Amino acid sequence: MHREQLIALISDKLKLIRTEKEFTQDQMSDLLGLSKKTLVQIEKGRIQAGWTTTVAVCALFRESSILQHELGGDPLEVVDLIANHGTLLPKEKTMGGYIWWKNISDHEGYRLQQNAISNHYRILDTNNYRLLSSFEEEIIKDAWAKIQQKS
Known about the structure:
With 151 residues, the protein is of the alpha+beta class. It has 7 helices and 5 strands; from the N terminus they run ααααααβββββα.
């Protein structure tokens, strides 16, 4: 997923996210720092949200079932991947990838997974901590090969 794709997705789903949280247009525009007119234009598909608004929506509504379903998990992970040019180093503990993740390979408790929605990859350790996430298949393959060589 690229920046423009995320912006388009958030722009397209903004009204659904707002109604899911039962916010009025006035409340949502105030929360996001937008004029009500701009929010209405985004919701009607006349313009797209900017990057800052997109990131704010992902951060403020990261628990949104709509966002999680559309992005295959934590929206901030996708934002972080895009902002860091496709690769993330170790981070927080994950839930292990039972929803939205396909196991590609297992090796001594380590798992290589691919997200079914955004298609990015990640490697989890034996305790479900993310060792690496990336949209770049070659980066993940190299890291996976190193894990397999250590054993």
